[in-house]
Specification:
Elements (H helix, E strand, L loop, with lengths): L12 H23 L4 H25 L6 H8 L10 H40 L1 H9 L4 H15 L7 H24 L1
Helix pairs in contact: 2-3, 3-4, 6-7
């Protein structure tokens, strides 16, 4: 007995959502065609209307949507000036501005946090392997081979924190530069 297997990468949730919406729209169009047949021009107009709405949605999300924000708020912000929102425009604008500023602040905090974590990890790994680096440099090994040794060791000890050999190679180069610069600075002072 052979099993059918989906090949390739699993579909993105956004793709699945889009396919579901397209299937729903096609189902509605099929049912409508049975109940009330449309002429070719009416079908073309309906298709053009649906495409225009999809383009508007994509444009609105591109211009007004910030990731922590609900899509409905982005649609409401894009619709400001419409007479149906009279009296609610200030409320929508206030909420929109607050969500945008919260999103910007959260991204900045996340970026700073990630940078600090990376610096701490870099400093701890280099200080932990400083003697190994010095010993392998004295043996005449290249930065690449030293980086490979360190990466293999780190993958054994800490498999949950992946690290590339290229990153470690950059760290070793910085370590060597600081080590060479230190005696020169001491001579000058």
């Amino acid at each position: 007995m052979t099993s059918t297997r989906n090949r390739g990468r699993p579909k993105n949730p956004a793709t699945l959502h889009r396919e579901q919406k397209t299937a729903e729209a096609e189902k509605i169009l099929r049912e409508t065609a049975i109940r009330h047949p449309m002429s070719a021009t009416e079908r073309n107009e309906m298709g053009a209307l649906i495409e225009a709405l999809e383009r508007w949605e994509a444009k609105t999300l591109e211009e007004c949507h910030v990731p922590p924000m609900k899509k409905e708020l982005a649609y409401a912000a894009a619709s400001i000036g419409d007479e149906s929102l009279e009296g609610y425009e200030e409320i929508i604008l206030k909420e929109y501005r607050q969500v945008v500023s919260n999103g910007e602040r959260a991204r900045a905090e996340g970026s700073n946090s990630n940078q600090q974590k990376a610096k701490d990890r870099h400093a701890s790994i280099i200080s932990e392997y400083a003697t190994v680096i010095d010993r392998l440099i004295k043996q005449g090994r290249s930065k690449s081979s030293i980086a490979d040794v360190i990466v293999k060791e780190l993958r054994k000890l800490r498999p949950e924190t992946p690290i590339s050999a290229r990153t470690v190679r950059r760290w070793i180069a910085g370590y060597q530069a600081r080590k060479l610069a230190k005696p020169m600075v001491e001579k000058i002072l």
